[in-house]
């Protein structure tokens, strides 16, 4: 250790190298792009190499017995080409926004997804904001009161949150709050006596506010309540436990002990020292939680008849509509990568060590 | 639901500080260079006997018994459609009947026989595959490591449920395919964990000296390294049983697992969507999933407290030196 200090780290020749953060960002973007290619490879392999002859499925039994028709079909759809060529055709189609045609709705999958995406984004964004706030608060409380009653209670609550089957919780809440108590509005994004606000973002609450329609906003928000609640409960357990661990680790650090020892108010210690130090692990978990949220929407939306990606996936899955399912997988896979890319870039902003290392 | 995993930063990834710190601390100390003897982790009574772990174990055993005894204790044939349809609980049956006149109570009991063994099988297989791939990758490094880790990256680039859904759909809807799909998405976390642990131990003095004595790779991995990675892998596995149950029942809920007549909890909840006012159809199977999963999670959590290598070294290190 002492010897290596004599060796200077190689210095960049002035001006030639890019800003370290840019280099870091560029590397992350490239890795993510590679993973996107990987994701398309997965969906390609699954659609093309899986048991079940696409020719027979598309043509039907009688036509599939006629070799001439089969050969023509294979030529038309490029199925006689080598797999590598087929993959590049597939990639080319993807780049043109061609995800195939859904066998349930008979629409191009890309149109279906575009229509469904804002609905899902609306509940996913609501749930991620809520669960980050609740999870950080609860996790910090649990860490501060380690070993005390409130820590144990929070441990049980978060474990329970992780153990609830979301699709079931959605069903129960819907039954209780809608069927029994009549507090929550029925299914869908708006009550039938409201018309869709003018399309700007596709998020009904935002669009209604932009159009100045306060009653539409309130109605859309009340429809959001239950789906967002279910998804929030689902991710809060995850977040609380991770935040607790992260905060516990930081609480052990000398600089926090010093801050407390010099008598800084607890609030200052938490905000400026502990949570700042824990921000990187917390960010990681938010990225992870987003993935679980996207999975959650697939299992939850069908119950609330929420016309988003989740309901679409449920419908496609129950009809074994392969193009539809692959489209959902591709979209969610890419969204998840994008969120994690953003998280990675934020690391670099928050922690100079990350962008300067290597 | 299963935890999603990030392609880049899995918090479970990498070598826990435990055994590795112990060996690295005394680089040249001959005593430290000897293999850290595998001490059976002392199950610290204070934590382990925490009511949660015990309660969880009791409930898990209860459900396993139900799975074994379902044919004996179920009052009706779970598939027979011979009761009045949509009967509320209490009117002749304990948990009511579904839209086809089947006894919900009997179906919940039989459901234990479907989900619990499959989830256990899934976890065991994931551990085996993941541990083998991870050890080989961590021990031999280079190309093997590179390939294995890029594959795990790819799997972890998707949220778990979504990838499982896509694979299950492509393979065709059946319970076996659902397990297969779940297996494909589950093994990488074990491979990552094992690789990290093996990587940490590979260069430790006791393993290196074994190699200098001419031990084969199998001997080093199996006798020297394996005992020191069992703990963390076991903790991850125990916490994964609940996840496996949620994943399998979730796939069945989507219609990608158990086929309709089968009494499977996830598909029973899915039946309830068509009959919202008959709450009992969905509530009871869901409660079954919830109680089983929470039980296994409590056990896993207690196990982690008891076996956590991190807290173990803090305690052990202080007393032995």
Automatic annotation (TrEMBL), chain A:
GO cellular component, one term: plasma membrane
Pfam families assigned: BPD_transp_1, BPD_transp_1_N
Location of this chain's protein in the cell: Cell membrane
Membrane-spanning residues: 21-46, 123-144, 156-177, 224-243, 282-305, 325-350
GO-annotated molecular function: dipeptide transmembrane transporter activity
SUPFAM superfamilies the record matches: MetI-like
Keywords: Cell membrane, Membrane, Transmembrane, Transmembrane helix, Transport
Domain of life: Bacteria
ABC transmembrane type-1 domain segment(s): 117-347
Membrane topology: Multi-pass membrane protein
Subcellular location, principal: membrane
Leader peptide range in chain numbering: none
Annotated family: Belongs to the binding-protein-dependent transport system permease family.
Protein name from the UniProt record: Peptide/nickel transport system permease protein
UniProtKB/TrEMBL annotation, chain B:
Gene3D superfamilies xrefs: MetI-like (1.10.3720.10)
Keywords, ordered alphabetically: Cell membrane, Membrane, Transmembrane, Transmembrane helix, Transport
Membrane topology field: Multi-pass membrane protein
Domain ABC transmembrane type-1: residue ranges: 112-300
Protein's UniProt keywords contain Oxidoreductase: no
PROSITE patterns: ABC_TM1
Listed InterPro entries: BP-dependent_transpt_permease, MetI-like, MetI-like_sf
Subcellular location: Cell membrane
Transmembrane segments: 48-74, 116-140, 161-184, 204-221, 233-258, 278-300
A Pfam entry, by short name: BPD_transp_1
Ranges for region Disordered: 1-26
Highest rank taxon of the organism: Bacteria
Family: Belongs to the binding-protein-dependent transport system permease family.
Name this polypeptide is given: Peptide/nickel transport system permease protein
